[in-house]
What we know:
Layout: H1 32-41, H2 43-48, E1 51-54, E2 57-59, H3 62-66, E3 69-72, H4 75-113, E4 129-132, H5 133-136, E5 137-141, E6 153-160, E7 169-170, E8 175-177, H6 179-184, E9 187-188, E10 193-196, E11 204-207, E12 211-213, E13 217-222, H7 228-237, H8 239-243, H9 256-261, E14 263-266, H10 270-308, E15 331-334
Parallel strand pairs: 6-12, 7-11
Antiparallel strand pairs: 1-2, 3-15, 4-14, 5-13, 6-8, 9-12, 10-11, 10-13
Helix pairs in contact: 4-10, 7-10
Amino acid sequence: MLYKRIPVCITKREVAFNQDVKAIIVNNKILPKYLLYWLLANEPQLLNIVEPTGIGAGKLTTDVLSKIEVKIPPLAEQRKIAEILGSWDAALALLDRRIAAAEQRKRGLMQRLLTGRVRFPEFEGEAWREVRILDMGKVITGNTPSKSHDEFYSGKFPWASPADMNGPEILYTKNTLTQSGKKIARIVPKGSVLITCIGSIGKNAMAGTNLAFNQQINAIVTNGKFDNTFVYYLIDHQPHKLQKYSGTTSVPIVNKSTFERIKYLVPPSIDEQRHIAAVLDACDREIALLRRKREALAKQKRGLMQRLLTGEVRPPLSPPFGSPPGGESYEETAG
């Protein structure tokens, strides 16, 4: 039985809570924030002692929780560890705010640039026009080589599904095809725009390399009149256009002929399309860079927690916390 995580927090005032929550009222041997970080650092071990109660559910009983042994250094060292890890949390929170601001800025730019409300000066006066998806290029629906033939899969050629559409570009896919599978698949070139039309309608991405894809996806191989990156952002900004054609079936579907007839307002000049795409692509690159920074910082914090909360690394204690602990050892106490 797998569980995603055990939520833990510190209360800042008196609270009431239901039977699904356990409260630890700490004694004078341990600081609440130190205990919080210890629980977060030891979450994998805690998940191992969760008792299953049903599909995807589980509980950590009071009896089991109270018997968990926690390694604790002297209070001054606990305070310093909490202070160090708190500074990393502050840095992560700052990055979270910067990511949220960058995402909001991108949404605002999409709203203005992809509707023609804001124009680049050199293109003002040229009215936007309505076109069908079919006018943007060739539409290809993907397929699935038979899963009963093992020789079609686990090769080197990417084969995309909606699960692989987690960013502007698809470079790698969970499933891959062999040369035999590739011969049966439908392949589109790098730069093609992929849109999910069965299930999670409107999820989209660009092919970062030549690839094949399954039947849930329609691909647009743009022609010389349309910039593929602009088309990606245009469709990404208006998923409701696709969703309203998906019908009322249990599994939403937009068939190929309907998909090809869906209309969008676009600038007449491919140069204006490219200008818009360049601005939005710069936004995505900024967001991706910030997310990579956050991921690296979070990884560093996890490593630091592991070392500090096991006593592998002892922090120097500066005033007012006293001198470095030297011979004082960690002790274990039951929760």
